[in-house]
Design brief:
The chain is an alpha+beta fold. The chain contains 10 helices and 9 strands. Helix 1 runs parallel beside helix 2 and helix 8 packs across helix 9. The relative contact order is 0.06.
Length: 402
């Protein structure tokens, strides 16, 4: 009986060893293939109640649980890293978006400020500023221009011709067409028929999306006072301050224009030269103030003898000239006779006794101004007339002294 029991125990010991080896093989598979999520106990060979089998099974389960824990920990770390990376990317994107929003807001504020400053400048200036399209309709006009046109409520949409004469409109549209065609700015002086004031227009192209000129901006500056000052300076530069007659510069400029007119009209010209006698003697004996009075009296006498078409000037200290446009050569003789009579009958209020002139004259006939074959190669000029008239005057002076 005892021997049977021993054989039975030996048998189960062998069975337990076999089971242990099988479970150890499964454990090795688990260790070598850790991707398995759990241990399938059905693959274990269970037999008997051997303590070794039970211990091996517990070991396998512990190893499986530890590996599962490590696998979950690794998965959690990887997921956490991905979440951190995505969160960092989102933070960076948010910062870029916030920066772009701030920059755009600042740009919009700058544009609004710039527009307000421009509008303030346009509305506060004394210049008229307006924009017209290619059809010459007002797109914009500042308050200054609208008030000038008599429409303070605005003129946008109205044609330019609604507020200007036909001639002014034709002149303006021609200028606008030039700017649109060339794409370049131009300037033009315009005297308004509305009130006679003078304006300097600066017309500049307004370019469309394609870069071509689509409209024209006009800045109209009132230069009336400037033109008046220029005219005053011009008058001073060509006028003799003492007598109010033209000086040499003024005479030469007007004489050149007169010669051109005479050439076109086929008229002759005559230059009358008059030298006030004894001016030096008056200055030396009576003083320069009396000499000035004598010059002024001589100028009044000459002015009274001349016609509106004559060009009268004081070209030197005691020298006067009169340029006349004549159909005949009788003009200078008549002028000399009138001048002699005028000096003999001066106004007592400002008369200067004893005044006399030495005179001479020279002329050019209408044929001299022609450009046909046979005419002189060297036509008569202002300078030539002055020389010839001066020589004639000195011949008369010498004859009188003789």
């Amino acid at each position: 009986m005892k021997s049977q029991v021993n054989r039975f125990m030996a048998y189960w010991a062998c069975v337990g060893a076999v089971v242990l080896m099988a479970n150890l093989n499964a454990l090795m598979d688990l260790v070598l293939h850790p991707s398995e999520p759990y241990l399938d106990v059905e693959h274990l060979v269970v037999g008997g109640s051997s303590a070794a089998v039970t211990a091996a099974l517990c070991l396998v389960l512990k190893v499986q649980a530890r590996l599962r824990s490590q696998n979950l920990e690794l998965q959690n770390k990887d997921l956490s890293a991905r979440l951190d990376s995505e969160a960092e990317g989102l933070r960076a994107a948010n910062e870029r978006l916030a920066s772009e929003i701030r920059e755009r807001a600042a740009s919009q504020r700058a544009v609004a400020d710039s527009e307000e400053k421009y509008r303030s400048l346009v509305e506060s200036t004394d210049d008229s500023i307006y924009v017209v399209d290619s059809g010459y309709r007002y797109l914009f006009a500042n308050a200054r221009h609208a008030v000038r046109l008599g429409h303070p409520d605005g003129v946008a949409g109205h044609p330019y011709g609604d507020f200007h004469t036909e001639e002014e409109t034709l002149n303006f549209t021609a200028l606008v067409d030039r700017v649109l065609a060339s794409g370049e700015s131009i300037q033009h002086e315009q005297k308004s028929r509305r009130d006679g004031r003078t304006f300097l227009w600066t017309l500049s192209p307004v370019r469309g999306p394609e870069g071509t000129a689509a409209a024209v901006t006009v800045v109209s500056k009132d230069i009336t006072e400037k033109k008046q000052m220029e005219e005053a300076f011009r008058e001073q530069s060509i006028t003799d301050e003492l007598t109010g007659l033209h000086n040499r510069r003024g005479f030469l400029a007007l004489a050149e224009q007169g010669f051109k007119m005479a050439r076109r009209m086929g008229k002759g010209v005559s230059l009358f030269y008059a030298d006030l006698d004894d001016l030096k003697k008056i200055n030396d004996s009576l003083g320069h103030s009396e000499g000035d009075r004598a010059l002024q009296a001589a100028a009044r006498a000459l002015r009274a003898c001349c016609r509106d078409s004559d060009i009268l000037a004081r070209i030197g200290g005691d020298e006067f000239v009169v340029l006349q446009f004549e159909d005949s050569e009788a003009g200078p003789d008549l002028l000399a006779a009138r001048l002699k009579d005028r000096l003999a009958h001066q106004d007592p209020a400002d008369a200067v006794e004893g005044l006399s002139f030495s005179t001479g004259w020279a002329s050019c006939s209408p044929q001299v101004f022609c450009r046909k074959p046979g005419c002189p190669e060297d036509p008569c000029t202002v300078a030539q007339l002055l020389v010839r008239a001066d020589q004639a005057m000195y011949e008369q002076k010498r004859a009188r002294k003789a």
